[in-house]
Amino acid sequence: MDYALWLYIALAIFVVALIIAIIGVVMLIVGMKEPLKKMKGSANNLKDRMGKLQLETTSLSHNANELKEDMQMKSEKITALMDAGKGTVNSVIDLNASVRAITGNIASRVDHNRDNIAEVNQWSNGAMKLLVALENRNITKRSDVTHSSTSFSDTKHY
């Protein structure tokens, strides 16, 4: 047989193999079209989910910053309230010390006044004794004068 015949047979086998390969590639491409569409849909779905996740992350970050600011303001208010409470306690302590000082001053004045009252009572008692003694003396003088110069019938009775 001739080399030309073998060449035509080889060429025919090559063409058949090439057609089979092309049909296989076309079938592969057509078969891959559906999974590629599904992969594209999944990728788009994943992209949408990532966008929503990013939006939610941004929202959570914003809320966290608002909470942080709110906590900071409340912390400052509580600090101011605690300082005011400490100031109130200090004011009560100062007021208590002032009341104690005033009470001590009043107590010392009362004790001093007791001494003065006792002294006044002594002077009053002495003055009363002196008045009683003078009165007794005057009564004694009158009765001496009355007995000697007048009689009982001349004395007026009230």
UniProtKB/TrEMBL annotation:
It comes from the Bacteria. The keyword Coiled coil applies. It holds the Pfam family DUF948. This is General stress protein. Keywords: Coiled coil, Membrane, Transmembrane, Transmembrane helix. InterPro entries: UPF0478. Residues 36-84 form a coiled coil.
